[in-house]
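Exercise 7. Predict the joint structure of the components listed below.
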Amino acid sequence: MKNFIIRRIILGLFITFFGAMLSYTVIRSLPTSYVESVARQRASNPLSTKTYQEWITELNQVYGLDKGIIPGFFGWLGNAIKGDFGESWHYAVPVTEKFSEVIWVSIILNIVTTLVQFFIAIPLGILAARKQYSRTDYAITFFALMGISLPTFFLATILKYVFAIKLQWFDLYGLTGRFHTTMTSFEQTIDIAYHLVLPVITLMMLSVGGLMRYTRTNMLEVLNSDYIRTARAKGLPEKVVINKHAFRNTLIPLVTSLSGILPGMFTGAMITETLYQIPGIGYISYQAIIRGDIPFAMFYMVFLILLTQVSILVSDILYAIVDPRIRVN
Amino acid sequence: MSELEATNFPAEPTQSPPSHQEMALDDARRVKTLSPGMLVFKRFIRNKLAVLGLVILVLMFLFSFVGPFLSPYTQTQVFYKQDTISKDYAGAIYNTELRYSVHPSSSFEGGDRARFLLALGKGETVFSSGDRSFAFFEEGEGFYRIAELENVAEVMLGRVNPVGGYTLPPGFTEAFEAADAADEITFELNGETYVLSQVMKTTHISTQRDVAIASYSIFDAYRAEDNSLVGSYDFRLRSGMANVNDETSFTFNNREFQIVEHEGQVTILDDQGEPFAEVSDIIVNPLDQGEFLSVEFKALAREAINNRESEFEFTDANGVTTEYDINRVNTNYYIKRETTTTLINMFEFPTIAHPLGLDNNGMDMLTRLMYGGRISLMVGFVAVFIELIIGVTIGGISGYFGGWIDTALMRFVDLFNSIPQMPLILIFGSVMDTLEVEPMQRMFILMAILGLLGWTGIARVVRGQILSLREQDFMVATEATGVRTSRKIFRHLVPNVMPILIVTATGSLGGLIITEATLGFLGLGIKYPLASWGSIINISSDAFIMGTYWFMWIPAGALILLTVLGFNFVGDGLRDAYDPRMRR
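Solution:
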């Protein structure tokens, strides 16, 4: 087990290293005229204290643009390991500072969404599996596929149209209301929670379908296995069969999927955060990326790569904890 | 593997043999057995959701690929509408500059006019310009007669001496003395008017000859052919004099002209009593080059301005009555009228001609959706095709050769998979924005990027499938019979991977269409003038348009949803049909 984890960590680091290198290569291969125009643009930004030439110099410094791609990458990596990801062009503050400022919004958003999603998807998935081919099953399947097929932006636009424009229950954009600064801290919390309702619904609707189908498929597989037949044959009540024997075994793949959605949450939330202009890591990165903020884009990419590797590692460990058979091997 | 399962599927009644004695493969038995493909088809057809998905997809394809041929409009056809807007039509101003009419046989040029204005300002009545000297007479308010003087005599110390061989008529000296005593500046003798002017101690006596008249009045002839007559010096002089002397008529060219004064305006009638010319001190000019204003219009406009009215009506020669508004800015008057102008018909709500209305560029929404569907579907299909080529190649090599090649390639797939796609696609989108890539080129680049980023899933599936196929007996048989490697792969392995490939491809098509639409929505995908469903919805990021014009985004969104739903239904149905064990 220990060996396995060590091997997995080494592989993860290896992939992160080459992933970062690949990302760096892609970003470096972009036409230089683009980099120059970005530098020019940044230099004319009133927030910027540097001139065009200084920006170019900074580019060369941070990314070693005067050097080749490989030495340039190692220069970047050397700084990155020390925690220095450079200064964001768009926000004109160090990348890590901006990151730590906004990440908590995304974390709250994603935790709430994941909880809501599990509370909805697992019971419905089990229900669909128990009543296979019934009308309920068809309805749940249809609903799940509908959620999978809905583009984020369309769902968000519809929700905004209905709840923000027609019913006027929520604000169209933003994390805080107009009078946020004059509120007490309790009211501020309520205000933020209120503004997160639509984004949570959007994110939840998009991922709940997949999870529901996943639960259903696994539950069906478990329900068809021999030990369930045995449990029923020895006369256990249906409730015990489902909750004790079947459900516990469906947890194995569910736990894996839980860690699998971890990096997906941050990329998926990117579009949702942008649509609702929630200043989480997704929206902030989106703005940086479309403005060609290479230090921030590079940081975000590496952050996601690392997150993926961590989530794979966690899922492997969790798998081993949940399923004793794996521990033996 | 899958077709083995399929043929043994217990739910197929055609296959379960009635008894073990009939298990021999005779011809009658063969006929009853359905081919694996047929079985898959039958199972697919029985799945209602899958058939629904297929129907949706067929409709979408018809809509996108046949629809444009049926649509009466093209993709970029802009529709216009006529609308009336209040537009400046004519300008009017009180004339503050003197207008000159010069005697046909004489000249009164710019320099002379400047001297005249100078003298007028100083209150002098005599002035000289160059070697000519002039005198002017204010015949009426704002009406000046300018005459050139010719020296005939000089008076020095009370003695009158003729100049330049001029013969003084009898009684000249007496007449001069009488006028001098009375302090007059002119005197008449024998029908000739003499002008006195003082230079130093010498008094000059001159004859005078009219050269020009100056007045503030504007003359407009009712008939174009009368313009030269009305503009002529003599006509101006006669009419002006008559007006000044409060006469109601004057004779010119043996024609009797009447003068009618009416609310500050003077109309001259000819011998038939018809209006002949308008005299006014207000200039009315069209603001548009090539526009011609009739005298009647000018008369009405002047009357309105004189009466301080803010609007008037005018009926033109064709009998069309138009309302005009008068707008005063300082000393200028602007005459506005409602003009019909051609405007781009934006955001028109659905009508019969345009069932889904017109968009922000005045283009037919339904037609844009058809062409947009074409691009959305095409981007999806090309990207999937690229994914398949790369995925099958890498997955196939990895699965077939195994060993270190497999490990290396799979690590590469892991690596590739770890790179987040969305940020990368956004980066490419914004780079294309900065470089201003052509819309058509952009579409191809987008297809390539989407395809290049999404092949890892297919590679994994193909590898897994080939790994398991490799162990099967028929592959051992190909080994034993010495079949070429390429033939083994393409003749024996690839057809067996086909079903799972189709299922995976169908499933990923939906995702690709969503990705493309998301890019379009963010404004980083397909660009105007090309359309895709996503880029059509792009406009709904403007909250006002989203709230006001539902037809701008709901149809496009519904089409995306339906298409993706169709692909997912069909993909699901296909998977179930190929692999009944996994059936939901």
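Discussion. Residues 365-401 of chain B form the longest helix (37 residues).
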